[in-house]
User: Which sequence fits this backbone?
């Protein structure tokens, strides 16, 4: 089982990212997935969490993910020791940031990938909503899900020009992060 935790702020799309990832894995890679949010009555801009579990077998555990393989940070102001708490040794920390000095804060036994997803989202969407950019980065630097599955999930869940812009953003971020188009 692969367990992913998304950290974002209300309105940044943390739960949408978790849901798109689950859809990509379930409908287009024929695996099982659960995706769900965790937030309170807070308003736009307050911290929120999104969770995705992916496995080849049915998933019974619906609890909040505390021990995970991947942590995705949509907003680097949320990056602290608590955000990476529970990230397993050998896990992946994927951070949207303009800073390049973040690795010094975290143990050597995790892989840290920094992406300026805000810049890319502004460029392709005209708004700083980074969820699909971070999914493109995730596909490029891990085996969690394939890029074509994310394209299909975006096409299914988003409509018209929004889907098209997000697909271009996915692909551009994927390439920027070292993914090879096949």
Assistant:
């Amino acid at each position: 089982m692969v367990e992913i935790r998304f950290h974002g702020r209300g309105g940044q799309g943390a739960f949408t990212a978790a849901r798109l990832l689950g859809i990509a894995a379930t409908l287009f890679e024929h695996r099982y997935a659960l995706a769900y949010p965790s937030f309170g009555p807070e308003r736009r801009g307050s911290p929120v969490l999104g969770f995705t579990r992916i496995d080849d077998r049915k998933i019974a555990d619906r609890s909040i993910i505390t021990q995970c393989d991947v942590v995705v940070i949509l907003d680097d102001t949320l990056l602290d020791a608590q955000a990476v708490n529970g990230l397993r040794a050998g896990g992946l920390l994927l951070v949207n940031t303009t800073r390049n000095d973040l690795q010094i804060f975290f143990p050597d036994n995790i892989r840290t990938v920094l992406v300026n997803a805000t810049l890319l989202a502004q460029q392709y969407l005209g708004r700083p909503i980074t969820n699909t950019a971070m999914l493109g980065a995730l596909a490029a630097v891990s085996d969690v899900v394939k890029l074509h599955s994310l394209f299909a999930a975006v096409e299914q869940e988003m409509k018209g020009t929004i889907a098209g812009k997000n697909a271009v953003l996915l692909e551009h971020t994927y390439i920027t992060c070292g993914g090879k188009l096949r």
User: Anything to note?
Assistant: The chain has a mean pLDDT of 92. The CA atoms of residues 87 and 175 lie 26 Å apart. The helical segments are 14-29, 81-84, 117-125, 131-141, 147-157, 160-176.
